């Protein structure tokens, strides 16, 4: 029976974007300002994200202790909220629409590994959160997933398939439980 052999892992086809200096600078900016619970200044955060190549709309709120891997692979629309301890692990592009809410501890995970290969190859897929989507506390959106307009992924749920607009999803893996009605 074959076994995983991480000594032969080769990440060669993947490139994180940006040059080495940009990635190094972002590592420290992310650690000191974004991931820091004691740094609540929102305007500086959105300005730094733009400086590092993110596309950021107006009225975006970024709470303390947020971890963003690659701002040059991030686009956020207008009036979106990013809650405390959100992790945007964007190895590839993450597109977040307007009026989206990422609640505390939510994870957007654009990468994984192919467990069927002995080399444990990297798998990536972009994530899109359409306008009005709500990702609940500690919920996870996996690589390659699109969350439709105004869809809800409830607290602690895991999106492993695309979520249709205006529906509420719950569980691991998340399943459609009912329509979202907004009054």
Descriptive account of the structure:
With 183 residues, the protein is α/β, with parallel strands linked by helices. It is 14% helix and 27% strand. The protein has helices at 20-34, 42-51; strands at 55-56, 61-62, 67-68, 74-76, 81-82, 87-89, 94-96, 101-102, 107-109, 111-113, 122-124, 127-129, 134-135, 140-141, 146-147, 152-153, 158-159, 167-170, 175-179. The strands form four sheets. The protein has a seven-stranded mixed beta sheet with strand order 2-5-8-13-16-18-19. A five-stranded parallel beta sheet has the order 1-4-7-12-15, with helices on one face. A hairpin with an 8-residue loop joins strand 10 and strand 11 (122-124). It starts with 19 loop residues before the first helix and ends with a strand. This is Colanic acid biosynthesis acetyltransferase WcaF. InterPro entries: Hexapeptide_acetyltransf, Trimer_LpxA-like_sf. Keywords: Transferase. Belongs to the transferase hexapeptide repeat family.
Largest sheet: 7 strands, mixed
Oligomeric nature of the chains: single chain
Count of beta strands: 19
Output mean pLDDT. 97
**What best-fitting shape do the alpha-carbon axes yield?**
globular
Instruction: Kindly provide the radius of gyration, computed on alpha-carbon positions and rounded to a whole number of angstroms.
Output: 17 Å
SS-based class: alpha/beta
**Numbering strands along the chain, what is their spatial order in the largest sheet?**
2-5-8-13-16-18-19
Query: How large is the share of residues in beta strands?
Result: 25-35%
Helix content: 10-25%
Question: How far from one another are the termini?
Answer: 57 Å
Low-confidence segments, ≥5 residues, pLDDT <50?
none
Number of helices: 2
Order of helices and strands: HHEEEEEEEEEEEEEEEEEEE
């Amino acid at each position: 029976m074959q076994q995983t052999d991480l000594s032969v892992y080769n990440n060669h086809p993947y490139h994180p974007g940006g040059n080495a200096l940009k990635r190094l600078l972002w590592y420290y900016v992310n650690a000191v300002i974004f991931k820091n619970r004691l740094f609540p200044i929102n305007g500086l955060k959105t300005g730094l994200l733009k400086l590092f190549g993110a596309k950021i709309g107006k009225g975006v709120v970024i709470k303390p202790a947020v971890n963003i891997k690659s701002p040059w692979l991030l686009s956020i629309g207008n009036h979106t909220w990013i809650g405390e301890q959100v992790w945007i692990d964007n190895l590839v592009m993450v597109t977040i629409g307007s009026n989206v809410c990422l609640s505390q501890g939510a994870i957007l995970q654009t990468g994984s590994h192919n467990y069927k290969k002995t080399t444990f190859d990297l798998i990536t897929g972009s994530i899109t959160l359409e306008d009005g989507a709500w990702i609940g506390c500690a919920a996870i959106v996996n690589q390659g997933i699109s969350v439709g307009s105004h869809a809800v992924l409830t607290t602690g749920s895991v999106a492993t398939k695309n979520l249709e607009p205006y529906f509420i999803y719950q569980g691991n893996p998340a399943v459609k439980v009912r329509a979202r009605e907004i009054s």
